[in-house]
Amino acid sequence: MSGAPNRLPAPAGLLVDRDRPIGFRFEGRAYRGFAGDTIASALAANGVKVLSRSFKYHRPRGILTMAGQDANTLVQLEHEPNVLADRHPISEGLEVRAQNVAGSLKRDWGALLGLIGGFMPVGFYYRAFFRPRGIFEKFWEPIIRRSTGLGKVDLKAPRGYYDKAYGFCDVAVVGGGPAGLEAALTAARAGAKVLLIEENPVLGGSLSYARFDVTGAQKMPGYAHALSERDTWAVVAYIRALQASRTTIDSDQVPEDVRQDLLTQRDADAPTPPESNGGGP
Questions:
Q1: Is the C-alpha dihedral spanning 55, 60, 65, 67 positive or negative?
Q2: Which of 149, 159, 210, 224 has the greatest count of CB atoms below 10 A from its CB?
């Protein structure tokens, strides 16, 4: 993509659709990414290195894990604070702002606190600001509270119940990587009701980490390719079909080639009846 200096060329980037460009804004500036990009991946492709500022000294912070495991990518959306940019997909017209900045992300005057960092050891605020009596509540507390909030909550934003969901199964498998998929399929083939839990939008785990050689073929011994959206659907369809029936896999929504692959796989995985020895137990 023109204007995205860090975008790796195909065949890298299996999870993005290069035929579907999407425009969004970060800190008031327009950027473009692809369908399947997260905010962080699209910004990284466009050469944006700083996404946020650190909590105390407002030091510049960028992408660290790209897996939602750190606070460096927390950003502000229109109605939602503290959004993980490396987990949230981009959408057309999305407005994204940095948070915990005094001024702007590029010129954050809060970084001046670093100049007096030697006078602000860990926990100093628990022992300071209390004299003269009553000054903390009236003067210091409002200042400190304004500087400690990472994002701004929209009190008029739609509300809902997002605490938990209820489900019942025979086997719950946490993680949709190679081991988790194999465990889920094995349990489903045995007739169990299976719940496969995966935090990522696609199944496959390490299978989705592209490893290409110069010819574009993936070097994954034992696996032909990473799980695409079609492959993910096929696995889910296979599990559901196994749970629904041990004899047929038939649906108008299943492409014929996928249905045949599933039938072949089901027949290959069918357990072999034990040989009879002709005698009693």
A1: positive
A2: 210
